[in-house]
Amino acid sequence: MIARAENLAPETSTYLSFLVLSTIIATGGLLLDSAATIIGAMVVAPLMGPAITASVVTVLDDRKLASRGIKMQIGGLLLAIAVGTLIGMLLKESILLLPVLDIREISQIAERTSPNFLSLFLALGLGIAGAISIIRNAGSAFVGVAIAIALVPPAATSGWVLPLVAVAAAVLVLVNLLAVNVSALIMFWVSGFRPVEKEAVVHARSSVISHVALLVIAIASLSVALGLVTYSSFQTILVEQEINGE
Question: What is the pTM assigned to this prediction?
């Protein structure tokens, strides 16, 4: 399990290269409203690996590798947002984007600026699926999970300087990332994985409990935003139905 976790957290140069490239691909796919291009960016994106790595090694009490997995997630997320911001600024000053273009009207971007509770449930399920794929060494299943979780596209979307677009996309990517971490962490512990040394089991248990508690609190805080978006979407549908009826 430790060997598999190490494979999911590649060398820093490789990780950063794939992250920058996947963000560029995702940004292009979003602006082109191309689902196929965005799926390609999801496959290239390396953010899912460190999330599973951090969960595995927290359960197995490998503090050094756990710290690396967490740092890779945070640093990777910030880098994706920064790259998305830079690309957005450059494109706005070029002739590649029409001055009258409203990115909020692009369907692929709109999907990533309307997070709701279904996004949370999906991410929790994908975290469990990712953990099982590592436990059973099913690489193809892990690729499917990485595509479905789609961490980089909303991160790239959150780089745009439109406040509402940026905040909504940031909430989505944070909810996805936190939910994957907590569900994978619980899945590995429930599956019976423990440190080799008996003395480390107690520390691993307390570490898992504290990590799960922290992640749940963070998800609960973000759930306020999810609830507001869900309620707003529901009210919008009711108004549209009423108008159509009239």
Answer: 0.81
